[in-house]
Amino acid sequence: MNSICKALLLLAFFIFINSAGAQNLSEPQAALASVNGVKLTTAEYQKWLRQAIADGAPETPELRNKVFNDLVTREAIAQDVKKTKLLERDNNAFKLELAQSNALQEIWFAEYFKAHPLTDAQVRAEYERQVTLSREAKNSQEYQISQIVVTSEDQANEFIRQLKNGTNFESLAKQKSIDQKTASMGGMLGWVLPSQLTPPINLVVPNLLRGQITQNPIQIGVYWHVIKVDDIRPFVMPSFDQAKVGIAQSLVQQRRQDALANLMKNVKVAKVYN
């Protein structure tokens, strides 16, 4: 949609909401605008506006303008995708399916964290625990590690073989790891102490050199992990203010893994192939 059309629609929006007709905006199916004859309703507009506010945006005229503009743009793109049959090309239908699956996972995790919120007290307690642990000899060094998580030992072994033959770890993690949170970052978990890692990973990592990967997959619950040590450095305990964001992120990641492990305990998986 060109800028002139968008400007005209935006002008129509301003005229409408400032007119007597704005009284009808309380009706969910009231027409707010149309794009190539397709009606955009008040209900759609309010839904997107509420989400923007829930995400922390202040409710201002500028925000309302942006939400309206975005609504028009989304509809224009959706129409063009349908017109050009874009979903029938390449692997686009699967990409849409994958995005929906990833969104569903994030919705599930969001609901989990509603029931199990991370508190400031928990972050502080973890910091104090790390202060104590940092005094132990085994935690004199910290490790920057990456992971690939899969559901079968055979697949994990195949990835280890590929990595030994020169396949890029980051690319493989992005393509194949089922842990979406770390996969999007090439598998990177960040800097951790051995004591912060889930057993038996905490015993394996200190025996790896910089750049090395695990020789064998590591099983945690129903998942198999391939671990790489990206870097190693002496550990210096930062102040709480310096560490709290990283600690919170680490706790969130740990809880995500715990939530998945608890879920999978009650899931019956029956392989129907070799």
UniProtKB/TrEMBL annotation:
Pfam families attached to this UniProt entry: Rotamase (PF00639), SurA_N_2 (PF13623)
Keyword field: Isomerase, Rotamase, Signal
The EC number(s) this enzyme carries: 5.2.1.8
Gene3D superfamilies: 1.10.8.1040, 3.10.50.40
Signal peptide: 1-22
PROSITE patterns, per the entry: PPIC_PPIASE_1, PPIC_PPIASE_2
The reaction(s) this protein catalyses: [protein]-peptidylproline (omega=180) = [protein]-peptidylproline (omega=0)
An MF annotation (GO) of this entry: peptidyl-prolyl cis-trans isomerase activity
InterPro entries in UniProt: PPIase_dom_sf (IPR046357), PPIase_PpiC (IPR000297), PPIase_PpiC_CS (IPR023058), PrsA_foldase (IPR050245), Trigger_fact/SurA_dom_sf (IPR027304)
Domain PpiC: 140-231
Domain of life (superkingdom): Bacteria
Family of the protein in this entry: Belongs to the PpiC/parvulin rotamase family.
Protein name stated in the entry: peptidylprolyl isomerase
Lineage, uppermost ranks: Bacteria, Pseudomonadati, Pseudomonadota, Betaproteobacteria, Burkholderiales
